[in-house]
Amino acid sequence: MSLVAALLSWLPADAAAQQSAAKGDVTIVSQSGEHVFHVEIVSTAEDMARGLMYRKNLAADAGMLFDYGHPQPASFWMKNTLIPLDMIFIRADGRIANIHERAIPHSLDPIPSDGPVRAVLEVNGGTASKLGIRAGDRVLSPIFGTAG
């Protein structure tokens, strides 16, 4: 085990995740306007498996973007997740396929995408409804080939 890996193993799970995730902005264009989220971008199997587990809070304009690199069916659960989340499933063209609102903390029930998606954005539970974000809205990010 390298020194860096050894040091990271002593950090709390959320601190270790923040160390390895890239940062970026994602903008959702909806009828109510443009909504910018400052996100951690995860693309490795390990980071995706950890996700937002063990986090006690999440800023209102923050989230985590799971980038699969290519379209595929996706399914999530809330194991070891302490806060309710909205899961926004995004197609490769940057359009929202479906949204699962207010996922229940600790639930092991699967939460699937409606068909293949390129990415999933997790934000605080209730955010999509509060901001009027809906299926079909555009998501701007370099991973979709759009400005972000």
Shape: globular
Query: Between the first and last Cα atoms, what is the distance in angstroms?
Result: 37 Å
When the domains are counted, the total is 1
Give the neighbour order of strands across the main sheet: 6-5-8-3-2-1-9
Fraction of residues in helices? 10-25%
Q: Tell me the CATH superfamily.
A: Protein of unknown function DUF192
The CATH topology label is: Jelly Rolls
**Total of helices:** 4
The overall strand count is: 9
Which segments are poorly predicted (pLDDT under 50) over 5 or more consecutive residues? Answer: 1-19
What is the CATH class designation? Mainly Beta
Secondary structure topology:
Elements: H1 3-9, H2 13-20, E1 22-30, E2 33-42, H3 45-50, E3 62-72, E4 75-76, E5 85-90, E6 96-103, E7 111-112, E8 117-124, H4 127-131, E9 138-140
Parallel strand pairs: 2-3
Antiparallel strand pairs: 1-2, 1-9, 3-8, 4-7, 5-6, 5-8
Pick out its properties.
alpha+beta, about 150 residues, Jelly Rolls, seven-stranded mixed β-sheet
